[in-house]
Automatic annotation (TrEMBL), chains A, B, C, D:
InterPro entries: GlcG_carb_metab_protein (IPR052517), PduO/GlcC-like (IPR005624), PduO/GlcC-like_sf (IPR038084). It holds the Pfam family HbpS-like. This is Heme-binding protein.
């Protein structure tokens, strides 16, 4: 099973709907199980920083098979994975907004959202994930 | 004047239509006047190499304000810009498939396509550009 | 279909046999369809340069879905893809020794070999590929 | 004295046995005294993130001549080496799973394991190290 381009765009559209509802422009990215981009969209006026962050959140979620939020807890000073964020040339993002995409219990990709507060990013990522089916 | 996200997606859809007509899966990217991603789509089974190439063609076209095809002629051994392709960490692409997007004579962004032969990439980039209006 | 770790090691062992027969120490790498490493082995006294080259040859072959040898012809000055070697932070290798691995006509990974002359690298890559079945 | 390719593969196999016993797929890497890869193996379904982490743990252990676990204690906020993890393009890993390999008191290489919890990674790295003799 894999995420088709059409599915990725549907997930992004769902995340965009949530972003519009919240009223904060977002960047949304979907990657495949190899961590490679399928599709990415930057809403008008979204932060430049969010281009890399959204893609890297999606990458991180598939690379570690948990959400970036969970990884973030493990990466705090004194926790077991503190320091992971500098590996892979800094591609690992350790705050919320990146979620793995699973099919029948197998991770087949990731979605990443950046642009608002972490809570807003997570809400949009969840909305995007809900559109996978 | 700037390229909105909706316009970028419309340009990408037009390039995709051409790719479907040709029968070769493509990656299409649209960047703004700052060279930053607005949207990027990888069609199912498109080459992994095309992810970076499409984005970098779009970047190159806006960065030098000519098509990557024209830049390519100037970058051949013995020509005036020979060697430019190694600058900017290798982001400049020097073969066809990247086009600047102009509005009233002002460059406001770029579109890049990769996935087929250079001729096919150029045809899709032109189809995408035609959707800008 | 995917290349298992055991299959990758069997391919590497076959390439090693060929390298031993030739008498030149080699580095051999096998990557999956996402371009990510499955296994890599450096024979004693193989060139340090070959560590990156072998991995990047394998990456390149799956990323462009042709051998690095074929890509190399297209990347010569005056040819259609001249300049591609600087993209992707220079990961594309444009001389022989990288081969895509196909299953039922679908590219599912790549093998890359470096250490000897290009002809020797290609011979070892072919030996490794032959062990896939 | 140096770690031969055959020794590296034997160490990796021993670490794999431990990973199989634990039931978590791992990536294992062995590097020489120059910090350069000798061999690396990714077990089926191991995390993508572990490819870089395993190699960099092995690198780190030989580069600082202590385990990545010990380095991690020194790299916490307020400790003497806080911040080291961003040097060398982020290659230094500061949590457990990387061990130096010594012969007669001389460090001749490193082994790195990633894929499970830090405790599991350390257990596999120790198993791999035990196979050196």
């Amino acid at each position: 099973m894999y995420i088709s381009k059409d599915t990725a765009l549907r997930m992004i559209a769902a995340a965009e709907d949530k972003a519009n509802e919240i009223g904060v422009p977002m960047v949304i990215a979907v990657v495949d199980r190899g961590g490679n981009l399928i599709a990415q969209v930057r809403q008008d006026d979204a932060l430049l920083a969010s281009i890399d962050l959204a893609l890297n959140k999606a990458y991180t979620a598939v690379a570690v098979k948990v959400s970036t939020e969970v990884l973030g807890e493990l990466a705090q000073p004194g926790q077991s994975l503190y320091g992971i964020q500098t590996d892979k040339q800094g591609r690992f993002v350790i705050f919320g907004g990146g979620l793995p995409v699973a099919h029948d219990g197998v991770i087949i990709g990731g979605i990443g959202v950046s642009g608002g507060s972490v809570e807003q990013d997570v809400a949009c990522a969840n909305a995007g994930l809900s559109a996978y089916c």
